[in-house]
């Protein structure tokens, strides 16, 4: 039988972890119909010398808004990703009410570095409930397969209005939230996502609404997930609900949990989390920490210093503008309070000044590319003082710094990337677009870690990027190369695959700026639901938008 498409001459790595083998892959009607030798089709793609694998699944993105103005979902589409999960950390844009559109935009501005003007110009807001949101995406079309969590912050705003930013929910509100969550899951949401992270501050620097939820609210919402048996639950733990709590709660809920993120730190906290995860799994708790192969690196300006805003002194400035920040930065008392907060036991995200590098300094261009601690030593000052002094020399506080928050300990990272019950996540694609671009996570992992460091066999690496993720979500027909599965396929060269450069562009609505990585190496062909979107390393102009809105089913 002649297929619509045959990929010939490649080495199949099927997502199960099984050993690679030589075979052709035939596709008809958007699905895989045969894997074998001597297959024929109306169109043929050569894969000689390349790996033929399931398309990569990125479980941690924030494409909730970008999907409307960039349905190709760049730059993920360039890196072999064929399915994305949005709505992470509880920051979906549905359910919503018209009076809260600006609140959601301003929340996303502070927690995910999304431009309010871009959001206003790019989101159609032709939906209210979560099912209508998925319908809206589906009507417009999408280049990759797309699904999303219903987010806790959006859910609270929808039910409680602005009180969601102020207090715990009452019994009636919890009941209503449970009803809305149930409807979203039945409409096909990927699951439920929430955050308790101290870094997540929304409008005017206030804690995002999910951080005000009490245990009664959390338990009620998780009970709905247990009853519906759909998708997974994604957490960003914090003070109200910590990582150890997840291992106690998950067995009673049934669906897997995942959390953001297990990263290496100088304090060695990752060792405790690895031990906790191993012990939890031994007791039957299915909790999957998300790990990343890339150092967590931010490029930020002192106008909106995301990495510093978890410090209460900086957090108080989020309600103001440049004038308020300028006044505070010049105030010795402000500097004293900020230092005191970092000196407290258990302080979160204490800066490592040795990782700070000057990215942009219009008033001091000779400093670009230099480390802050070296500049401070040269000037005989303290790095924090020098940082603020340099910012004050810019008329608009336009000093841009680059810093590493975590995950730069290579030896420790080698260990957590090979942990059996950890999953690759935290690409954050679609978020922090002016500060980082970790969408190339898959190509970085395959290049830097699998090829260059021989961290694991190629079949194990591909399984981490595909089958493991599909199983977590409860998808039975994606993440694998086998007959009847949707033909989401990536063909890559294991000898050259790499993420390529990151560059800054202005291509978003309202002249929005972002970082992108659209020039990877080694990605030859990408097929979504049987339609090639990239052939021989170039975009297929005639591909259209072959992605599907994936509505996550009830678990078997």
TrEMBL record:
Organism lineage: Bacteria, Bacillati, Actinomycetota, Actinomycetes, Kitasatosporales
What InterPro entries does the record point to?
A: Amidohydro_3, Metal-dep_hydrolase_composite, Metal_Hydrolase, Metallo-dep_Hydrolases_sf
One of the Pfam families matching this protein, by short name:
Amidohydro_3
Please tell me the species this chain comes from. Answer: Yinghuangia aomiensis
Q: Which residues form the Amidohydrolase domain?
A: 44-532
Q: What is this protein called?
A: Amidohydrolase family protein
What range does the record give for the signal peptide? Answer: none
Gene3D superfamilies noted in UniProt: Metal-dependent hydrolases
């Amino acid at each position: 039988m002649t297929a619509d498409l045959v990929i010939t001459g490649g080495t199949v790595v099927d997502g199960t972890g099984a050993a690679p083998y030589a075979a052709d892959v035939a596709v008809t009607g958007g699905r895989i119909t045969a894997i074998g030798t001597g297959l024929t089709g109306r169109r043929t793609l050569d894969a000689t010398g390349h790996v033929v694998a399931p398309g990569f699944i990125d479980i941690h993105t924030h494409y909730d808004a970008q999907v409307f103005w960039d349905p190709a979902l760049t730059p993920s589409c360039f890196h072999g990703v064929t399915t994305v999960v949005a709505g992470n950390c509880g920051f979906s844009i549905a359910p919503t009410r018209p009076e809260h559109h600006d609140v959601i935009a301003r929340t996303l501005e502070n927690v995910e570095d999304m431009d309010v003007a871009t959001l206003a110009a790019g989101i159609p807001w032709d939906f209210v409930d979560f099912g209508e949101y998925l319908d809206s995406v589906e009507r417009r079309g999408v280049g990759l397969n797309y699904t999303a969590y219903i987010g806790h912050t959006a859910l609270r705003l929808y039910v409680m209005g602005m009180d969601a930013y102020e207090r715990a929910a009452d019994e009636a509100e919890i009941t209503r939230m449970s009803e809305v969550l149930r409807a979203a899951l039945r409409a096909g949401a990927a699951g439920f996502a929430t955050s308790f992270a101290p870094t997540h501050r929304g409008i005017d620097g206030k804690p995002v609404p999910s951080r005000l939820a009490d245990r009664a609210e959390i338990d009620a919402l998780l009970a709905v997930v247990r009853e519906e048996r759909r998708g997974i639950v994604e957490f960003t733990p914090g003070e109200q609900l910590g990582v150890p709590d997840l291992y106690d709660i998950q067995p009673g809920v049934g669906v897997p949990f995942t959390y953001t993120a297990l990263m290496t730190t100088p304090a060695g906290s990752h060792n405790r989390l690895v031990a906790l995860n191993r012990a939890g799994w031994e007791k039957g708790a299915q909790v999957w920490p998300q790990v990343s192969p890339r150092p967590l690196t931010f490029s930020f300006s002192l106008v909106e210093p995301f990495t510093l805003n978890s410090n209460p002194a900086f957090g108080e400035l989020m309600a103001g503008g440049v004038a308020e920040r300028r006044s505070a930065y010049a105030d010795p008392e402000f500097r004293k309070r900020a230092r005191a907060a970092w000196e407290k036991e258990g302080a979160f995200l204490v800066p490592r000044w040795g990782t700070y590098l000057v990215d942009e300094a219009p008033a001091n261009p000779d400093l670009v590319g230099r480390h802050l601690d070296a500049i401070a030593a040269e000037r005989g000052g303290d790095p924090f003082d020098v940082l603020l002094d340099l910012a004050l020399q810019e008329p608009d506080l336009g000093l841009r710094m680059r810093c590493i928050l975590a995950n730069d300990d290579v030896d420790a990272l080698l260990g957590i990337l090979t942990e059996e019950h950890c999953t690759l996540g935290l690409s954050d694609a679609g978020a922090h677009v002016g500060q980082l671009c970790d969408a190339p996570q898959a190509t970085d992992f395959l290049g830097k870690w699998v090829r260059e460091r021989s961290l694991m066999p190629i079949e194990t690496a591909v399984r981490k990027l595909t089958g493991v993720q599909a199983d977590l979500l409860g998808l039975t027909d994606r993440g694998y190369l086998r007959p009847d599965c949707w033909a989401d396929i990536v063909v890559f060269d294991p000898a050259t695959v790499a993420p390529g450069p990151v560059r800054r562009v202005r291509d978003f609505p309202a002249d929005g700026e972002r970082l992108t990585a659209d020039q990877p190496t080694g990605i030859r062909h990408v097929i979504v639901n049987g339609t090639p979107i990239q052939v021989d390393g170039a975009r297929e102009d005639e591909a259209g938008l072959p992605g599907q809105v994936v509505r996550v089913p009830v678990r078997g």
